[in-house]
Design the sequence.
């Protein structure tokens, strides 16, 4: 797999395509898959700064990782500078490569708590939160944000400049406002505006569906890296496709059913290592599995069968029975696999 290096603050990544934080999805198994297939770095699901500060066992467990995931950043949200600093110190003890502060979460529960994207409405407080985290730890702290609260208050450039002054290592821009949630298309031009305004690296994010999109986004905005969320669900192959296209300027061959089988099986095995109850692992795995097989001949009846299975061995037998009996030729994944990806709300 050709390496296409990019520099993000102190980190040299072997690909400019990074796996997004995805609550309910990017557990250690999905992150390992992404790295194995060529993602430049990975992020944890968003954790609560307050939960971390209270030393909440669940939060700390969710932040845990396997060394194969490195570079690995833990993402969290905080609503005050003290909370941000306390959580940062505790998370640093787990030895991630860095921390990422979330100012993009549109979820009502978080917004009502004055966290996530709500802080885009108070840039002063947002910057103090970043500064407190940066000062509290010896690892890099980055920021992920949306482009503003709504169309009338687009302030991505102002926020990016403020977090640069506060010491953030880089900023990721999800090119939508909070009000847009996941509707419409991301406005990639907003990423270019931020890139032109700051000296820290910028990661572009929003609606990147293919290796070609990565090329287009980098060319159009000059961003230093690209973050991929929904298009990586059940399809770690996207990171291989990106490295291939950027490294050789030719498109990669899509995965065969046999490759999909091997990858899905590996992800389940890593989930079994992580979740203490095997049934929990199987239940969590189902949503990934549904996407792994999307677009393949006969997938509807396989899904109906697989969704009733509770034992890991049964899932593996069913997967092999289905996928290893399909013709072993590359199959493009249908666009609908991304259009229908679940969103965060
Ligand atoms: C199911 C789901 C969960 C998400 N969880 C998080 C999260 O924990 N932290 C975060 O910063 N963004 C989260 N996001 C937003 C993504 O990281 C990303 O910004 C967004 O999906 C746009 O990228 P995409 O078009 O490549 O999916 C989530 C998105 C989805 C769909």
Sequence:
């Amino acid at each position: 797999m050709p390496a296409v290096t990019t520099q993000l603050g102190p980190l040299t990544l072997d690909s400019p395509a990074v796996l997004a934080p995805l609550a309910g999805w990017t557990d250690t198994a999905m992150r390992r898959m992404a790295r194995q297939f060529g993602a430049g770095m990975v992020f944890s699901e968003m954790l609560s700064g307050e939960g971390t500060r209270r030393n909440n066992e669940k939060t700390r467990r969710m932040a845990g990782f396997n060394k194969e995931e490195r570079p690995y950043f833990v993402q969290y949200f905080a609503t005050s500078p003290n909370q941000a600093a306390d959580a940062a110190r505790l998370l640093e003890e787990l030895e991630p490569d860095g921390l990422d502060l979330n100012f993009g979460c549109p979820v009502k529960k978080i917004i009502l708590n004055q966290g996530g994207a709500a802080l885009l409405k108070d840039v002063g407080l947002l910057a103090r939160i970043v500064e407190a985290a940066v000062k509290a730890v010896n690892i890099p702290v980055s920021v992920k944000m949306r482009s503003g609260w709504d169309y009338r208050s687009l302030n991505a450039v102002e926020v990016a400049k403020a977090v640069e002054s506060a010491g953030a290592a880089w900023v990721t821009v999800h090119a939508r406002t909070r009000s847009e949630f996941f509707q419409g298309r991301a406005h990639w031009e907003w990423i270019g505006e931020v890139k032109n305004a700051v000296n820290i690296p910028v990661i572009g994010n929003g609606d990147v569906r293919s290796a070609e999109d990565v090329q287009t986004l980098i060319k159009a905005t000059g961003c230093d890296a690209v973050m991929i969320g929904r298009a990586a669900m059940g399809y770690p192959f996207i990171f291989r496709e990106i490295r291939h296209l950027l490294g050789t300027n030719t498109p990669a061959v899509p995965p065969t059913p046999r490759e999909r089988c091997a990858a899905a099986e590996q992800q389940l095995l890593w989930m079994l290592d992580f979740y203490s109850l095997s049934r929990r692992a199987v239940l969590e795995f189902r949503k990934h599995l549904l996407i792994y097989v999307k677009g393949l001949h006969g997938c509807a009846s396989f899904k109906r069968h697989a969704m009733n299975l509770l034992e890991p061995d049964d899932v593996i037998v069913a997967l092999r029975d289905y996928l290893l009996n399909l013709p072993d030729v590359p199959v493009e994944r249908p666009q609908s696999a991304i259009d229908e990806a679940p969103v965060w709300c």
